[in-house]
Amino acid sequence: MILVALGANLPTARHGSAAEGLDAALTVLAEHGVRPVARSRWYRSAPVPPAEGPWFVNGVVRVETTLSPVPLMARLLAVEAAFGRTRSVAGAARPLDLDLLDYGGQVIHHDGGDGPALVLPHPRLAERAFVLAPLIEVAPDWRHPVTGASVATLLAAVADQQALEPLPPAPPNS
User: Fold this and answer.
1) Under a CB-based contact definition with an 8 Å cutoff, are residues 108 and 115 in contact?
2) C-alpha to C-alpha distances, 120 to 52, 100, 104, 107, 146, nearest whole angstrom
3) In whole angstroms, what is the distance from residue 172 CA to residue 174 CA?
4) Pairing with 47, which of 22, 96, 148, 162 sits 20 to 30 Å away (CA)?
5) What is the per-residue pLDDT for 171?
6) How confident is the model at residue 42 (pLDDT cuts 50, 70, 90)?
7) For the chain, what is the total number of helices (H) and then of strands (E)?
């Protein structure tokens, strides 16, 4: 199982609102060999850590790909850049954020010597309700590869610490 988190809190001129940008990112990922097979609802969430700026729209997608973890991370970063993402300070507003959460339960600490740096499972996923709430929708039986904790247990531990609300589904053909 390969899990990717998506987030955005800035619109793009080409794709529209943050939620519309996330929908467009799924299409672009599929065109580049990263095929979504299950998607959570989108959630609206306050920035973590707390910061000024627009709230985020977040979700999680389960994908299939022939890419191994480091090339997949490189592909995710390339799609972010195509959507106008520039990396400045942590927590900065962004039109697209793609995080590889888990890749088949592998534990990886890649320093970036021959590709982008990558740590799996994502080092902060257990602290983020805005990741865990959508994750439970696409992988309800998922367990943290290091701790063995279920996604439900992890979510229960942080659910009341972050402002989070599901967005209504988009109307058909929108």
Assistant:
1) no
2) 29, 8, 10, 5, 9
3) 6
4) 148
5) 58
6) very high
7) 4, 8
